[in-house]
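Input/output pair, single chain:
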Amino acid sequence: MRRVFFSVLALAVFVLTVLASSAGAAHHPRVPRAGAVIPDRYIVVYNGSVGSADAATDRRQQADGFRARLRYRRTVKGFAATLSPVQVGRLRADPAVAFVAPDRIRRATAISLAHGDSAPTGVLRIGAATSATAREPSGAAVAVLDTGIDLGQRDLNTAAGTNCVTPGAAPQDDEGHGTHVAGTIGARNDGEGVVGVAPDTKLYAVKVLDKTGAGADSQIICGLDWVISHARALHIGVVNLSLGGEGVSDNNCGMSSHDPLHAAICRLTGAGVTPVAAAGNDSRDLGGSLLNGPDTPAAYPEVLTVTAMADSDGRPGGAGGPGCDSSQSDDTPTSFSDFATRPADIAHTIAAPGSCIRSTRNGGGTTIMSGTSQATPHAAGAVALCLNEGGRAGACAGHSPAAIIQIVRAEAAAHTNASPGDGFAGDPLRPEPTGRYYGYLVRPPAPPVTSPAEALATGATLGSGLIPSTVVFSGDPARASIGVRYDLQKRVDSGPWIAVATGTSLRSRTLALRNGHVYQFQVRAHDAAGNASGWAVGPGFRAAAYQESSASFRGTWRRSRQRSASRGAVRYATRRGDSATFRFGARDLAVVMPLRRGLGSVRICLDPGARGSSCRVVRLSPSRGTGARRYVYTRDRLNPRARHRVVITVLGGRADLDGFALLR
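Output:
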């Protein structure tokens, strides 16, 4: 599979899969090296002077008598076409053309199938699941540039992207490689056989390789062009590129070497999408040598490059057997994986399981494959979780692809350094004497957790000197996260942190706060696989209760002693239109009034007449839920620096005002 490097264009990419049968896992013979120039096929890239790429291509088609096979609008401005030498010469002399590059072959090997529904060891090994738990879906979709995806696979949350092999046709997988890759990223947690790193995450099928596994630079650029055009609308945050081959990396986005694929990758990252690419299966330096050019896109500094390690049992320690492939040893680098040696390549390299990986099969069921192709989707799923999990922003949210790559690599390094036994022989803590760098084993980030936020909940009962408040964190308080537990702590008046809840699956806690004291809460999340977040600290606030006498009154309001009232008395009115106004500054407000049969109703308005004002009618004589000292009206997330007013107006019957509770 080696070929002397000679071209300024990235040589053709073949799908990086070393196949293993369920019986013996013997590697299939290599197909001829991808990288050959496709006769008479070229990629034409315009320079920055061109406005509309379509209009420019239309003019040149009419003038020169060719027909564009594929058009590019977002990655690069240009097109792919079959051209004669005369047409190539004219285009290269065209002042609006930056360069004309030959199109190159990309190939995939055949697929070996193995049915079954055992748990995927790779997902277990990186801590994305346990035997009983799995992660939540990512809100960041993943585009899989491959042979397509089986759009009818029930175990996958797929959608059709585009077909760059047969434009206009559905991107249905007609070979199997893309479906297998997709399952490792996001197979559903539904009992159908396997579970992915980020189960049920949206996967977009972008077909750039045909039914024989062959493709071309022009098709991959077409796929990237589609991703850039739809990334914002479809929330695509990650592209999986389980493909590669000899090329060149000029550290200048292909502009110096006339590499349109590199230029397209740079446009992809400029659009905020993180590319994750396979390192290669030639057991060589991915950065190239005197005899071989670098493996691209793996060598492009803009991608997260994934090497393959072997794991046969889903557990660290190296105690597993050979698995499906007797040539691979548990918890060591695979014999086929490319590696890094240069600092520039090391800086964007990470490792993942890539031997004997079970995942979804084209047509249903599961199959086993090996290769850096299979390692790559483990890392792509981890990146997706780092962006978003369960609708909550993760550590990577809001960062550039370059920063995301370093966040994911730092997470992997931090976990291995904290728990060295979770690594593998050949990682940076146990490097090979040959100087081969495979990277730290990828680790999905700890479950995301948001800073605690306090709230006064309608229906709560004000206590004697105690103010009930609900502390909410990490999203929907009513929904427990599968396999995720939370530790909640508080401190009072800047004192020491005190545990409130440890290992709870709920995302809220109702507490009684003492009047006049300052509170602060912090929370952290951890899952069954041992991934733990840092502490997310909420802002401090003071809990305060005010009597009804703190309000100003209009109309006839009388004081009445009531043993059940918060301070033994309420202020009441019976005439329609009588009102009470309370002015305050706080983040949270509760109006405290008794609820009992025989009382009337009131209208409660916050900041009447001001922008964003709101009113609510409250019946004080409900059929159920009666009681003294009730929060009948609450508002949270107010501007604490602003002065607010709440107005209670009697609509009919009797209304008793007890007081107010604030968090400020």
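Residues 545-663 form a domain with the Jelly Rolls fold (CATH 2.60.120.260). The radius of gyration is 31 Å.
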